[in-house]
Design goal:
four-stranded antiparallel beta sheet, binds L-homoserine, alpha+beta, seven-stranded mixed beta sheet, 10 helices
């Protein structure tokens, strides 16, 4: 086989209190095609700035080949990205996952998904986007002795995920730089307890419980100053009864609800409270993780 296309779902990380641990795959995708050639690197389908050897699909492709003790030959990579870049919906994780899986498939599928997760987690530094991108659905992960351990959790089928995506981006490095290195014990306890109840509320389909549990003291308060309109939107969403959180490191804001009319309700009011342009993306949970969609 010389050519393979990998489809990877978008992911929302943290889900409020599950900082660097919880994640959920969503119905938006990036497809990446890898074609082995006699030499050189050619990357198409993305901005010129991302066509060099530091492209994340290529770096993870090379990392997997290195761990297989395989030589890196030439490769053409074509990226067809529908996950918005630098918006907190796992666009970087999708590239890392695609590169890792692409290299593995092209060289005989010798590594397990856990093996690919280990390699990409070492590159990304936290597994919360990577795990649902590989496995689909709702996951919680821990890193023990440097290696990620992931568990999948059940989700009630009635949830609607409405992503509010602004017209500005926020690099994760910038959103992590505002976080303190140490937190009060009370804040740690707050997040552990709220996190456990978020998982149960998502399983039960209990919107009232989710709205209360989906609160956080480890990252959202520090980050909201980087996100124009955050407080107005949070207030607006909470008055509809939906649960609200920052998607990953932001700037996308996420509403989780059982109310099929939430989008309509917000559409009427969003423009009145915001200055930036916010696009509403109605999404559902993607239960299938990264997969091969064509190979020849
Ligand atoms: N858990 C990560 C963060 C997700 O919040 O910084 C973004 O990569």
């Amino acid at each position: 086989m010389k050519r393979v296309t990998i489809r990877v779902p978008a992911t929302t990380a943290n889900l409020g209190p599950g900082f660097d641990a919880f994640g959920c795959a969503l119905s938006l995708y990036t497809d990446v095609t890898f074609e082995e050639t006699d030499g050189g690197l050619e990357i198409t389908g993305c901005d010129e700035a991302y066509t060099g050897p530091d492209n994340m699909a290529y770096t993870s492709y090379c990392a997997v080949l290195a761990s297989l003790n395989e030589e890196v030959r030439g490769v053409k990579i074509h990226i067809d990205a529908h996950i918005p870049i630098c918006r907190g919906l796992g666009s970087s994780a999708a590239l890392l996952v695609a590169g890792a899986m692409g290299a593995n498939v092209l060289r005989g599928n010798r590594l397990s998904t856990q093996g690919l997760l280990n390699i990409t987690n070492a590159m990304e530094g936290h597994p919360d986007n990577l795990a649902p991108a590989f496995y689909g659905g709702l996951t919680a992960s821990m890193v023990d002795n440097g290696l990620p351990v992931t568990v999948s959790f059940p989700l009630h089928p009635g949830w609607e995920f409405l992503a509010l995506v602004p017209d500005f981006n926020l690099p994760t490095t910038k959103a992590r730089a505002v976080l303190p290195d140490q937190v009060p014990r009370g804040d740690a306890v707050y997040n552990i307890s709220h996190g456990a109840l978020v998982l149960k509320a998502l399983e039960l389909g209990d919107e009232k419980l989710l709205r209360t549990a989906m609160q956080d003291r480890l990252h959202q308060n520090y980050r909201k100053k980087l996100i124009q309109d955050y407080e107005q939107i949070e207030h607006l969403v909470r008055t509809t009864g939906a649960a609200f959180c920052l998607s990953g490191a932001g700037p996308t804001l996420l509403c989780i609800t059982q109310d099929e009319k939430l989008e309509q309700k917000l559409a009427r009011k969003l423009d009145a409270v915001t200055e930036a342009n916010w696009q509403m993306l109605p999404l559902h949970v993607e239960f299938q993780g990264a997969r091969v969609i064509s190979a020849e």
